[in-house]
Amino acid sequence: MDLIVGADGWACCGARRYRCTFGLAGFSADKHEGDGTTPIGTWTCRMLYYRPDRLPLPRTGLRVVPLTAGDGWCDAPDDRNYNRPVGLPYPASAEKLWRADNVYDLIVPLGYNDAPVVPGRGSAIFLHLARSDGGPTQGCVALALTDLLEFLADADERSCVIVNRV
Fold it and tell me: Is 3-163 a CATH 2.40.440 domain?
């Protein structure tokens, strides 16, 4: 089952509609590191990370990995592990996945700029939980907890997040 994200702030999965948020700078067909845009295209759901101290094991057809406090994601374009998971502390810039807020309690890395990785084309493009204030992301797609859990229940390794301009 795919999740289709529109610029109107709604995402559709079959007959279901979910309120969603995305990059504060909107959508882009020419994504660059740090530009605040969500890349336009069809991005495969690679797997699911979850916070086992906050949530029970989610029901999903995706491969599931529990997060630890030492998990990070490299966002340094000149590093050999750019746009890949890394252990923290890490010598180059890396985003911390174990956060104080709940935004990364569920993280689905999307297949954006990962096969092959192109330095500077953007990193850490995830499907994750929406902020409590409903604010935009730095380039990811975000859903409310109940909506993301509902999507995950039907998701598997063939599922995609499709970001449309319309």
Answer: yes
